[in-house]
Amino acid sequence: MKYLSDQMLIEVYHRAIDLQLDSAFIDLLAAELKEREIRIGQVSA
Description:
Distance between the termini: 20 Å
Helix content: 55-70%
Largest sheet: none
Oligomer: single chain
CATH topology: Helix Hairpins
Number of domains: 1
Number of strands: 0
């Protein structure tokens, strides 16, 4: 995950939700967003 830019991580997170990917993968992305102190409510889809 460290190789993804913040913007790419946000895009991947939103895309994973749109595609209804595995919840464990979405949780992993959400944890990385939290680690980087990116609040999901603040980002635009």
